[in-house]
Amino acid sequence: MSDVVIRVDNLVKKFGDFTAVNDISFEVRQGEVFGYLGPNGSGKTTTMRMLLGLIQPTAGHASVFGFDCVSETEKIRPRVGYMSQKFALYEELTVRENLVFYAGVYGMRPDEYRPRVSELIETINLSGRENDRAGQISGGWRQRLALGIALVHQPKLLFLDEPTSGVDPSARREFWDLIYTLAEQGTTVFVSTHYMDEAEHCGRLGIMFQGQIMAMDTPEALKQTKIKGAAWNIVTAPLIPALESLTATHGVHRAGLLGDHLHAITDRGAHTVQSLQSALAERGFVNAIVEETEPTLEDVFIELAGHEVKV
What we know:
Layout: E1 4-15, E2 18-29, E3 33-37, H1 44-51, E4 59-64, E5 67-68, H2 73-76, E6 80-83, H3 95-105, H4 110-123, H5 139-151, E7 157-161, H6 169-184, E8 188-193, H7 196-199, E9 204-209, E10 212-217, H8 219-226, E11 230-235, H9 239-247, E12 252-258, E13 261-266, H10 273-282, E14 289-293, H11 297-305
Parallel strand pairs: 3-8, 3-9, 6-7, 7-8
Antiparallel strand pairs: 1-2, 1-4, 4-5, 9-10, 11-13, 11-14, 12-13
Helix pairs in contact: 3-4, 8-11
């Protein structure tokens, strides 16, 4: 039996003259944490909605668990969970009542959902809050509840569409801990994000831009194969004049601000720590601290997209 859970072949979706998804093909295998990285409007949500059978493709073919995403959607939906960007909670119902309600929507009997709901409350770390109304809990707790709702019927495949957007970093880390726990238990996870740091946690990653998949591999492989030179962090001041000088330096492929320092990619073999320090010193930045570092996924994205994109 094949371990391919999702198969996509030359999938296209157009809305009038606008092409939201442009001829994409990929596979997702059982137990993967598969990431979809890209800015808003790059086609991530549209892809998910086609795989769920919520919208029909303009061209191409997609299947989930071997079932056609157009003609066999009723066979797909009971097997998958979906947490959308704007997940629906019933604000006047408690945490437990929301889980019970959605269990009923999925056709679960009371003898099935009662132990499952209790188990989920433990899994999503909402013990002690099960009787709180959904409208009164914080964003991080609401996010966990939405995940619990997507999991209540024990799906083998989970779609998470930018699930941590708008929550604090601590809640994001805790949420990813839950994702890994689910993957270890055999759930396949397809997660979209525009956070570069989150994308690092995916087993494999597809980078989307303007409806196309520009690259797909493990995060480490993408950094090794798509960045052809060396990466550097540079601490100096003032930053903007230093950036202008660094950008004008021979062999510097690209440079930009990264927090309170500069980050640069140089052509392969073009520079050493000493040569970059000397180049900056010649322009008046005599105390620059230069350190070679690993390329980032942001470096990969900018390299593929051709320019920096605000995500």
